[in-house]
Amino acid sequence: MKFAEIVAKMEELEITPQYLAEDLEYGDDDDYERKDRNEKTKVQLLEDAVGPFKQVYSKGGEGQGEEWFAVTLFEDHDVYIRVDGFYTSYDGTSFDCAEFREVRPQEKTITVYE
């Protein structure tokens, strides 16, 4: 599967950028209701459709400034999807206007002076 096909499947399952970035581990209110009915969660349904995936990197939050993002790898397809948000101490992480964006790991060399 390619990026667009994975995103289409997530949209079909009502998986938002916020869900992919924040709620993979614990789920959302809909997942709690599904669990009460012994139904599969959105994560389980997505994994059935596209195979295994995991969050491979995240940055941001308390003490790290306003920038916040998470990257999820869809392992069987070698597709990396990034979701950007922003963090404020009074409101936590917000995903206003967040969208799915395909990214690739890039190696960079930096110089620091200590």
List keywords for this structure.
29% helix; 4 helices; single chain; 114 residues; five-stranded antiparallel beta sheet; alpha+beta
How does this structure look, described?
- With 114 residues, this protein is of the alpha+beta class.
- It has one domain (3-103).
- Helix content is 29%, strand content 28%.
- It is built from 4 helices and 5 strands.
- Strands 1, 2, 3, 4 and 5 form a 5-stranded antiparallel beta sheet that branches.
- A hairpin with a 4-residue loop joins strand 2 and strand 3 (79-88).
- The radius of gyration is 16 Å and the shape is globular.
- The mean pLDDT is 86.
Shape: globular
Give a short account of the largest sheet. Answer: 5 strands, antiparallel
Average pLDDT taken over every residue: 86
Helical segment count: 4
Layout of strands and helices, then pairs:
Layout: H1 3-12, H2 17-22, H3 29-36, H4 42-50, E1 53-59, E2 67-74, E3 79-88, E4 92-94, E5 100-103
Antiparallel strand pairs: 1-2, 2-3, 3-4, 3-5
